[in-house]
Write a structure and sequence with these properties.
Number of helices: 2
Shape: globular
Number of strands: 32
Distance between the termini: 28 Å
């Protein structure tokens, strides 16, 4: 009975900890019976929000960074960044823990201040009872002790719904800038923070980037092959009866470091964007756009949409891959998971099953057919509710592996088989 209650409650608060509902943890905990004198057994509760694989300390090995929100009680919440450094092939040092904000949602990595060490920018959606604690945080990496970060610095501005974030040079000055999938009132769109030309690692006041709707996701990449980073946003146009109507907005960087007007593509109804990425899906040398959608309700179906760009660049063809029938889809990653030069997809998530319900979780692997569509290949059961996934070489064998983050802020590693490309071993706990 206790296990069933925990599973139902965990499923509820994990399910709500996603855009556009955002920071609804407190109300969910109250609905599950939290906030009473006898609810201490519920805590601590973790809400995992992001996982990233990258070589942050320059030793040639992929490290793993994770974000989560920790609720110690119904009213006490804080964000946690964990950094696991790979010390030898497949071996990781104990996690370094950093307290960052209240509800960190997404992180982006780049050498912000030009000192040769990648830094982090995090979005923080704050608490469910306040609108003044939503923030952007900068964590600079130490150049003396590589792999370690300094204290979080709050960046200027008062974001309203800071979910997606990306870093890149948006004006041609060679310095990474910040773009946030968050609008500045009264404009609809996103926010850009340009780096100061005179002071590396500091940012000017936020500027509104006008879009046809409110941005909920952002990705950067050179779409037109001119050597400049362009921007892709998923924007919410309207929400009739709470059902989202969204579109893709492409913004091209122009010569001279300005951003052009948004071009609107790919209208969708009843779908929430979980992943937006710019990549060369079919290996033809031009960048495409891939979006992973989850269903708003049972009236709609999760899907992958590829906007396949023509070669030479200039026009897009929409190719949809249905995810109907795949249970457990929340987070995803697009990468070449079998070494054939084509982008594939891995999606992970959880779902209730039975009565009383138990939370089950799956990792789904979908391989590309070569035409931009994706077909289910393998489903791997996860040992606990998991919702975030990232790719990278986690043991130094030159193959892409998968890092999966889930309940209890636990991290799983799935290593790709050298003998059978596209096949992965059983999930192994890395904590």
């Amino acid at each position: 009975m206790l296990t069933g209650f925990l599973n139902r409650c965990a499923g509820a608060w994990l399910a709500q900890a996603r855009p556009p509902l955002g920071a609804l943890l407190l109300s969910t905990l109250v609905a599950c019976g939290a906030g009473n004198p006898d609810d201490n057994w519920l805590y601590p509760l973790w809400v995992p929000t992001d996982v990233l694989v990258a070589d942050i300390n320059g030793d040639g090995r992929a490290d793993i960074l994770t974000l989560a929100m920790l609720a110690s009680s119904a009213s006490q919440r804080e964000g946690r960044l964990l950094v696991r450094l790979q010390t030898a092939p497949g071996l990781y040092a104990p996690a370094q823990s950093y307290t960052v904000g209240i509800y960190p949602w997404q992180m982006a990595l780049a050498d912000v201040d030009g000192d040769g060490a990648p830094d982090l920018v995090l979005t923080d959606v704050g608490s469910p009872t306040s609108t003044t604690d939503r923030a952007l945080w900068l964590l600079r990496q130490s150049t003396v002790q590589r792999g370690q970060f300094g204290s979080p610095q709050r960046l200027p501005g008062n974001p309203s719904q800071p979910y997606g974030v990306a870093l890149g040079d948006l004006n041609g000055d060679g310095r990474p800038d910040i773009v946030v999938a968050d609008s500045l009132a009264p404009a609809r769109g996103a926010t850009v923070m340009y780096q100061s030309a005179s002071s590396a690692g500091t940012f000017l006041a936020p500027q509104a980037l006008v879009l046809p709707g409110d941005a909920s996701a952002v990705a950067l990449g050179d779409l037109d092959g001119d050597g400049r980073l362009d921007l892709a946003f998923r924007v919410t146009l309207a929400a009739a009866n709470l059902v989202p109507e969204t579109a893709l907005a492409l913004v091209y960087q122009l010569p001279g470091g300005t951003l052009g007007p948004a071009q609107r593509l790919s209208p969708q109804t009843g779908l929430n964007s979980r992943l937006l990425t710019i990549t060369d899906v079919n290996g033809d040398g031009v960048r495409d756009v891939v979006t992973f959608f989850s269903a708003f309700s049972v009236d709609y179906s999760a899907s992958l949409e590829t906007l396949l760009q023509s070669n030479p660049a200039g026009s897009f063809t929409a190719i949809s891959s249905s995810l109907a029938g795949l249970r457990g889809l929340d987070g995803g990653v697009v990468a070449d998971l079998n070494g054939d030069g084509l982008s594939d997809f891995a999606g992970v998530g959880f779902y209730p099953e039975g009565s009383p319900s138990t939370v089950l979780s799956n990792l789904h692997l979908l391989l590309q057919t070569g035409s931009g569509s994706f077909a289910p290949a393998t489903t791997i059961a996860m040992p606990f509710a998991a919702s975030r996934v990232a790719d990278g070489d986690l043991n130094g064998d030159g193959l892409l592996d998968l890092a999966v983050l889930g309940a209890g802020n636990r991290l799983l590693v799935l290593l790709q088989s050298a003998a059978a490309p596209g096949s992965f071993g059983a999930p192994t706990l890395l904590n």
